[in-house]
Write the structure tokens for this entry.
Amino acid sequence: MAIRNIVLEGEPILYKKCREVENFDDRLGILIDDMIDTMKNSRGVGLAAPQVGILKRVLVIDVGDGVIELVNPEIVESSGEQIEEEGCLSCPGFYAKTLRPMFVTVKGKNRHGEEVKYTGKALKARAFCHEIDHLDGILFKSRIV
Ligand code: NI
């Protein structure tokens, strides 16, 4: 496991759409482990693969109740609204309020290619939305209200 460099706002890779993962191999496991280390080292609640320079649909989150890893995630249900302050490890020191759903259900795969499904409320819902946005090349700054 290793800590990778976090790509900062302004770098073109952060504005590109990521590719679906097709190979659930050791390389993917290493990427996910490194992303978890990198997120924890920066005390973030989430990290997406493009933030470490990899254009693949992979994210990790940890809002304090354990690490969730998701490959090829998609939001299958969302409801409610929340407007809360948000930040991003790629935009250090910048925080602003965004509009997000209060509840989301996300499905995707784990590192072994098995289907997983999670439901998040409040901060966790926000984290899922924020990280999935990264996979589509969207930074939270474009969600500011
Ligand atoms: Ni971010």
